[in-house]
Amino acid sequence: MKRLRRILGNTAAIIALLLCLAFVGEWLRSYYVWDDVAYGFRAAGGVRSVQIMLDDGAVQWWWLKWSDPLPVQTGFFYVKRKAQPVEDHTFKWRDDGIHRLNFGGKVGLLTGKVGRAPLWSIVAVFALWPLIWALRNHNEIRPQRHIRSGHCRSCGYDLRATPARCPECGTVCGAVE
Fold first, then answer.
1. For the chain, what is the radius of gyration of the CA atoms?
2. Among 4, 22, 41, 48, which residue has the fewest nearby CB atoms (within 10 Å)?
3. What percent of the chain has pLDDT over 90?
4. Coil, strand, or helix at residue 106?
5. Which domain holds residue 72?
6. How many other β-carbons are positioned within 10 Å of the β-carbon of residue 4?
């Protein structure tokens, strides 16, 4: 069970570290390029849209619902533009309320939720698990290395000459393999 926990923990730490590095790259890229990724799909009563924008060191996400008469694109789309300064890099979450929109004489409603966070916070979240995993396993792995290599568990003294007791600190160690 410990082996499985170690394998799963190592895998999760590697994935989190890779995501952390990917978001560091996106964070740096966001100062030069504005990435806008969205997916729209038909649902009861209209079109729903999920949109993520990376721009000027911030990420914004929108969950929107468009009423039926509005001509909204469905499916996946990606837009890349030159980066524009964002006025605010703070954490925000708001209910966007109801907006009446007019498209070519057709009136429709737009409702949704909007959120924003600085990209450094996402990098910090993904860096947290590998850091915790490394610190936690460092204390477990070190004593095992000393036992396997024939060293004292307490002080690390080489026990090849005296395998029963450590001459440095006096700890009873037992036989060394």
1. 28
2. 4
3. 4
4. strand
5. 29-120
6. 8
